Amino acid sequence: MGKKEKEFQIKWKTDLPYRYSIGKLAVKYFEELKNKKIMGSKCPKCDKRYMPPRAVCANCFIEMTVEDMIEFSPKGTLVGFTVVNYPFIDPNTGGMRPFPYGYGIFKLDGADTYMMHFVDETDHTKFKIGQRVEAVFKEKTEGDIYDIPYFRLIKEEEE
Amino acid sequence: MPKHNVAVVGIGQTKFRSKRRDVNIPEMIYEAVKMALDDAQMEPKDVDAILIGNMDHFEGINFSEMWCGIDAAPGYLKPVVKIATGGTTGSSLGICGYYNVASGIYKNILVVGWEKLNEGGATTGIITAFDPVWERPSLAGALGPLALMANIYAARYGITSEQAAKVTVKNRSNAANNPFAHIQMPDITLEDVMNSQMISYPLRLHDCCPQSEGACAVIYANEEETKKITDNPAWFKGVSTAHYYTFGCDDLMFDLPTAAIASKKIYKKLGIKDPVKDLDVAEIYEPTSWSELSWTESLGFCGKGEGGKLLDEGITQMTGELPVNPSGGVLSTNPIGATALVRFAEAAIQVMGRGGKRQIPDVETAMGMGFGGSLWTELAILGKDPKPLR
Amino acid sequence: MEGEKMNEELEKKVFRGRIKVPYKHTAGAYVEKFITEIGKNNKIMGVRCPKCSKVFVPPKMICFKCFEKMEEWVEVGNQGVIKGFTVISHSTPVLPLKPPFAYGIITLDGADTDFVHIINESDPKKLKVGMRVEAVFKEKPRKRILDIEYFKLI
After folding, report:
1. Distance between CA A18 and CA C17 in Å, rounded?
2. CATH number of C23-153
3. Which domain holds residue A83?
4. Residue C14 with chain A: CB contacts under 8 Å
5. Burial tier of A12 (Cβ tally within 10 Å: 0-12, 13-18, 19+)
6. Is there a contact between B133 and A88 if contact means CB atoms under 8 Å apart?
7. Which of A10, A18, A24 comes nearest C17 by C-beta?
8. How far apart, in Å, do the first and last CA atoms of chain C sit?
9. How many CB pairs under 8 A join A and C?
């Protein structure tokens, strides 16, 4: 590539609004989230309990309905953690996602699947695998994904 | 059963770099395509069909098969199909290319994987590939989840960051032998890796793959065509794919269960009893140093929790019993849509004995791996002949 | 659709998402020369295929028919012929101008490929296939394809 690099670049910003249909089970989930309840779906055949809720059990390939939905505990157990400490543009906003932030994978009590979410701790030495976590709800819930802005680590003495 | 045996008869790769500001997308792809055509001594008109792949949101274009399949590859008035399956894009291209020739639909096919990641951004692009309602708000691209996987793996088996750092030292010094590799660090030390910046605990900067720009093109042909082109092809012995759940959290997939499922399937099909003895080299898709340790276990190269030991014993080193990533692997080069195709291509290069300074002596059988999507695995095993081992 | 109420019900089930991402697209040496010549010298340049002699405007590296690398630059005319046209009357946020305005498929004198650009005539009755047009250049070029501001009827 001996030659001088050409620097001519065209810069633009894609900014596309979308309206995603979320389906009946998610509608129910967000309705109940407003009441600070976390609902998942349950397979009528294998009994696997899914979070987030969805209409088909992948194992059995059969339909799960709103009537099959069950409530999970807002508490769960931490399985893995990290502290995200790198810059990147968040395509949800077009701006930088603020960092560092704690990020965990955990299993809610009653669920068979795991979930990943923000955790309000940015010091990785404060996390411990196996420790208990709890969903923190906004004071005034609105029935959207931001009603649980993050999970918090439960201190041992609280248990 | 395949109707036809399929061989790799031509390979082209660009020199991978963090930026290629001297060329636009089709111009960059053309370099690899031209090299593959020249390698196979084929005229553009002789190519039957084109498969081309990348991930749209990395560059913000949605129609790459339209302009890259014609201006960068000889697809005019021919079938041109785009494939986009995330990190596995390159291996999906390879496997679909194989299917197209093995089935007898085409005599030959040109498959092209490419990415120009500096034009957008990998983390940002990856987020757009996931569920807008449930996953995008908190997802941090691939590295956040890969950090979680490493964290669980380390805790479960007592793997240390020093063991992980050894993977980077191995792969980046291997990369110095590969003229196409992006990051070549012949003198990298364990301390360099372990003192590098913490990116996402436990991943440090040098535990993570880069983002690269470049393209890889490979030509596959059936037996009749292959005879006309070369007496030194690399034959497909078999391919294997395993897809898993929709969401990355539907199961605890820290050790990539799809790698275990896909590898068991292909080993059984080909009569491979002990991959360390039966394979001569493996090009695996390791987005982080920790992934290589963990996934060599899932691929059956050693027992659970023994990935570190496998490396410590030197088995995966250039001089070991089963060298892993003599090309430098993904830790050295990661043009996402091309990455897994490079794994397949490098496996073919090893079988053909054309690896130059990165060549492992006397390779009869080589495996290439793709990882991506929602923790999917795709594998191909190539060899001096198309037959199963036993 | 039963009017407002049905819409409201549907809207409730909708998640409003957004993909907002900045990109920088490397234009490459061919496009750079093309755009620079337009802005600096008001010249429209193409490249000729060494095999089929076809002249491509805008220029690109590879002749898609012959799969040959093209390196011979040729200046084509600033005038050309309308091969087809349409008049945009419906406004959407992505358009370069406020409708109504015309888009034409234009073959420039000396070029073998067609070129889509704006024609500054909004009355479809005044436009005809076969009419000749001429490029009008922007006074202050910005290194964009719209440095040819529009084509005017001759």
Report:
1. 5
2. 2.40.50.840
3. 74-159
4. 19-22
5. exposed
6. no
7. A18
8. 50
9. 86
User: A-chain residues within 8 Å CB-CB of C18?
Assistant: 15-18, 91-94
Q: What percent of chain B has pLDDT over 70?
A: 100
In a domain, B137, yes or no: no
Asked if A52 and B135 touch (Cβ cutoff 8 Å), the reply is: no
Residue B181's pLDDT is: 98
Beta carbons of B23 and C19 less than 8 Å apart: no
* Residues near B175 by beta carbon (within 8 Å), at least 6 away in sequence: B181, B182, B183, B184, B185, B327, B328, B329, B332, B333
Residue B89, domain CATH: 3.40.47.10
Q: Among partner residues A50, A84, A129, which is closest to B140 by beta-carbon distance?
A: A84
Q: What is the pLDDT of residue A6?
A: 52
Within 8 A of A93 by CB-CB distance, chain C residues are 18, 20
Contact between B74 and C67 using a beta-carbon 8 Å cutoff: yes
| Pairing mode of beta strands B50-53, B80-83 | parallel
**Domain ranges within chain C, ordered by starting residue:** 23-153
Could A9 and C25 be called an inter-chain contact, meaning their C-beta atoms sit closer than 8 Å? yes
Q: In sequence order, which ranges of B176-315 are alpha helices (DSSP H)?
A: 190-194, 223-229, 257-270, 275-278, 289-298, 307-312
Give the total number of structural domains in chain A.
Answer: 2
Cβ neighbours, 10 Å, residue C150: 21
Bridge partner residues of A10 (DSSP): C25
C93 touches chain A (CB under 8 A): no
Q: Which of B297, B71, B328, B52 lies closest to B181, judged by CA?
A: B328
Residue numbers in C near A16 (CB within 8 A): 18-20
Residue closest to B377 by CA, chosen among B304, B296, B290, B311 = B296
Per residue in B289-328, pLDDT (tens digit) is: 999 999 999 999 999 999 999 999 999 999 999 999 999 9
Of B22, B134, B155, the CB nearest to A5: B22
CB contact under 8 A, B144 and A117: no
What per-residue confidence (pLDDT) applies to A2? 43
- Checking if the pLDDT of C4 tops 80, the result is no
User: For C93-151, how does the pLDDT look when each residue is reduced to its tens digit (9 = 90+)?
Assistant: 778 888 899 999 999 999 999 989 999 998 999 999 999 999 999 999 988 889 999 99
Q: What is the DSSP string of C37-65?
A: HHHHH--EEEEE-TTT-PEESS--SEETT
For the domain that residue A102 is a member of, what is the CATH number? 2.40.50
